[in-house]
Amino acid sequence: MAVSVKTEPAFSRGKPEKLFSGTYVTSASGDVPSWDISPDGKRFIMLKQAAADEKSSAETPHKIIMVTNWFEELKERVPLE
Predict the structure, then answer these.
(1) Average of pLDDT values for 58-81?
(2) Is the pTM of this model over 0.70?
(3) I need a labelling partner for 49 at 20 to 30 A (CA). Which of 7, 20, 22, 41 fits?
Protein backbone atom coordinates (compact mmCIF):
# COMPACT_ATOMS: atom_id res chain seq x y z
CA MET A 1 0.00 0.00 0.00
CA ALA A 2 1.09 3.57 -0.57
CA VAL A 3 -0.30 6.85 0.63
CA SER A 4 0.72 10.41 -0.17
CA VAL A 5 1.48 12.74 2.73
CA LYS A 6 1.81 16.48 3.13
CA THR A 7 3.52 18.15 6.06
CA GLU A 8 2.79 21.80 5.28
CA PRO A 9 0.84 23.78 6.32
CA ALA A 10 -0.33 20.85 8.48
CA PHE A 11 0.07 17.10 8.28
CA SER A 12 -2.45 15.41 5.99
CA ARG A 13 -2.61 12.10 4.19
CA GLY A 14 -4.14 10.97 0.94
CA LYS A 15 -6.15 7.86 0.20
CA PRO A 16 -4.22 4.57 0.54
CA GLU A 17 -3.64 2.79 -2.79
CA LYS A 18 -2.78 -0.85 -3.45
CA LEU A 19 0.60 -1.09 -5.20
CA PHE A 20 0.80 -4.77 -6.10
CA SER A 21 -1.46 -7.78 -6.43
CA GLY A 22 -0.60 -11.43 -6.82
CA THR A 23 1.28 -13.98 -4.80
CA TYR A 24 4.75 -12.91 -3.74
CA VAL A 25 7.28 -14.91 -1.76
CA THR A 26 7.65 -13.98 1.89
CA SER A 27 10.38 -14.94 4.31
CA ALA A 28 9.37 -17.88 6.50
CA SER A 29 11.26 -16.53 9.49
CA GLY A 30 10.43 -12.89 8.88
CA ASP A 31 14.00 -11.78 9.54
CA VAL A 32 15.12 -11.66 5.88
CA PRO A 33 13.09 -9.49 3.51
CA SER A 34 12.13 -10.98 0.15
CA TRP A 35 11.95 -7.52 -1.44
CA ASP A 36 13.94 -4.31 -1.63
CA ILE A 37 13.54 -0.71 -2.77
CA SER A 38 15.93 1.06 -5.13
CA PRO A 39 18.08 3.83 -3.65
CA ASP A 40 15.96 6.49 -5.37
CA GLY A 41 12.78 5.00 -3.86
CA LYS A 42 11.07 4.66 -7.25
CA ARG A 43 11.43 0.92 -7.97
CA PHE A 44 10.92 -2.37 -6.14
CA ILE A 45 12.37 -5.83 -6.60
CA MET A 46 10.29 -8.70 -5.25
CA LEU A 47 10.18 -12.46 -5.49
CA LYS A 48 7.01 -13.79 -7.10
CA GLN A 49 5.72 -17.35 -7.09
CA ALA A 50 6.20 -19.27 -10.35
CA ALA A 51 3.06 -19.72 -12.43
CA ALA A 52 1.19 -22.96 -11.78
CA ASP A 53 1.90 -24.21 -15.31
CA GLU A 54 5.68 -23.79 -14.94
CA LYS A 55 7.72 -26.80 -13.89
CA SER A 56 8.92 -26.52 -10.34
CA SER A 57 10.52 -29.21 -8.25
CA ALA A 58 13.44 -29.78 -5.93
CA GLU A 59 15.41 -30.98 -8.96
CA THR A 60 14.69 -27.89 -11.02
CA PRO A 61 16.96 -25.01 -10.04
CA HIS A 62 15.33 -21.66 -9.45
CA LYS A 63 16.55 -18.85 -11.62
CA ILE A 64 16.58 -15.12 -11.34
CA ILE A 65 16.83 -12.95 -14.41
CA MET A 66 18.05 -9.47 -13.60
CA VAL A 67 18.54 -6.85 -16.27
CA THR A 68 20.54 -3.80 -15.30
CA ASN A 69 20.67 -0.68 -17.44
CA TRP A 70 17.86 -2.14 -19.52
CA PHE A 71 16.93 1.26 -20.91
CA GLU A 72 20.43 1.68 -22.34
CA GLU A 73 20.21 -1.78 -23.92
CA LEU A 74 16.80 -0.92 -25.35
CA LYS A 75 18.18 2.26 -26.93
CA GLU A 76 20.97 0.21 -28.56
CA ARG A 77 18.54 -2.37 -29.93
CA VAL A 78 15.81 0.04 -31.00
CA PRO A 79 17.43 3.33 -31.96
CA LEU A 80 15.11 6.32 -32.16
CA GLU A 81 15.60 8.08 -35.46
Answers:
(1) 74
(2) no
(3) 41
